[in-house]
Design a protein that fits this description.
292 residues, alpha/beta, Rossmann fold, 10 helices, S-adenosyl methyltransferase, SAM_dep_MeTrfase_SAV2177_type, SAM-dependent_MTases_sf
Length: 292
C-alpha cells in the first residue's frame, strides 16, 4: 500500500471532457521564509515563481561564479534535446518525470507532444508550489498528470494509482531524473534508489539523468564545485557533486546511448560551440541509457 502521505492531487477522468480531482489531502503550505529547490531553479531560469529567500540563494551562487545561471540553462536545453531523441529515435510514448519542478518554457509534455500528441506524461514533485501548478497543467492538457510525492520513496511512487493508471509498465517508457539525484544525500543511498526505479522499468525503457560533477583532485574546477555544493547544502539543504564513476553507477545494468555520460552541453548539441565553456558548464553532466 502506498504511504498515505504520498497521494495524488488530481487525475484525468474519462467520463467528460473536463478533468476532475481525485481525493485531495491537505497539502503542506508554501513557506516563503525557506528556500525551495524548485523555486531556486526557477530563479536561475529567470522565472517569476520564486520568493526573496530563493533569489538570495541565486545571488549567493552568482557571487561565487557569475556564470552560475548557465548551468540551469544548459540543463533545460539538454532536457529538450533528450526528450526529442526519446520520442523520435527512441520511439518512447510515455514519460515519468521525477522532481519535475515548476513549469517553464518547454516542459517535457510540450516537447514530446509536439512530436506525438498522444504521449502521456506523469510529473512528480513534493513541493507545494509545484503541486499548485500541477493543477494548471491538468486543466490545459488531458495527457498530462501530476503526483504529489517524494522521489526518494520509489516503491510508494511507482505504486501510486495515478502512475499505474496512466503509465503502462508492460511497454517501454522514459524515466526522467533531471537535476534530481544530486539532491539525494549519500546516506539515502542514491544508487539503491536508482536500482529500484530501473528494476521496475520494462525492457526497452530509457533513463535520462543529469547531475553535478565532482571533477576530482587536481582539477582546476574542483574548488568551484566545492563552493557551489556548500552553497546548496547551506541554503536548500542538499546538493552533492559526485565523480564521473559515481554518477555512471546510477545507470548500472543499462546500455549508454552515445556519447555516454558527458557534459550536458556536449550531449548531441544543436550546433557547433561558438565560444569557450565557462567553468560552471564543465560541472554539469548528463546521459541517457536504455534497459536491455
Amino acid at each position: 500500500m502506498p504511504d498515505t502521505k504520498v497521494v495524488a492531487l488530481l487525475a484525468a477522468e474519462p467520463e467528460t471532457s473536463t478533468m476532475s480531482a481525485v481525493e485531495e489531502p491537505e497539502l503542506p503550505q508554501v513557506d516563503p521564509t525557506r528556500p525551495s529547490i524548485a523555486r531556486v531553479y526557477d530563479a536561475f531560469l529567470g522565472g517569476k515563481d520564486n520568493y526573496e529567500v530563493d533569489r538570495e540563494v541565486y545571488r549567493q551562487a552568482i557571487a561565487i561564479d557569475p556564470d552560475a545561471p548557465l548551468a540551469a540553462r544548459d540543463l533545460r536545453n539538454w532536457l529538450i534535446r533528450v526528450v526529442r531523441f526519446l520520442v523520435g529515435e527512441g520511439g518512447i510514448d510515455q514519460f515519468l518525470d521525477c522532481g519535475s519542478g515548476l513549469p517553464t518554457a518547454e516542459n517535457v509534455h510540450q516537447i514530446a507532444q509536439r512530436i506525438r500528441p498522444d504521449v502521456p506524461v506523469v510529473y512528480v514533485d513534493n513541493d507545494p508550489m509545484v503541486a499548485a501548478h500541477g493543477r494548471a497543467l491538468l486543466a490545459e492538457n488531458p495527457q498530462t498528470h501530476f503526483v504529489f510525492a517524494d522521489l526518494r520513496q520509489p516503491e510508494e511512487l511507482l505504486a501510486h494509482p495515478v502512475v499505474t493508471k496512466h503509465l503502462d509498465f508492460s511497454r517501454p517508457m522514459a524515466l526522467m531524473q533531471c537535476a534530481t539525484i544530486h539532491h539525494v544525500l549519500d546516506e539515502e543511498n542514491p544508487a539503491e534508489l536508482m536500482r529500484t526505479y530501473i528494476d521496475a522499468l520494462p525492457s526497452g525503457s530509457y533513463v535520462a539523468l543529469s547531475h553535478f560533477l565532482d571533477p576530482g583532485e587536481g582539477s582546476e574546477y574542483q574548488a568551484l564545485a566545492r563552493q557551489l555544493e556548500e552553497n546548496l547544502r547551506n541554503t536548500v539543504g542538499s546538493g552533492e557533486c559526485r565523480t564521473h564513476e559515481e554518477i555512471l553507477s546510477f545507470f548500472d545494468g543499462l546500455e549508454m546511448v552515445t556519447p555516454g555520460l558527458v557534459k550536458v552541453v556536449d550531449w548531441w548539441p544543436d550546433g557547433p560551440r561558438l565560444k569557450p565553456l565557462a567553468a560552471v558548464q564543465r560541472l554539469v553532466v548528463g546521459g541517457v541509457a536504455r534497459k536491455p
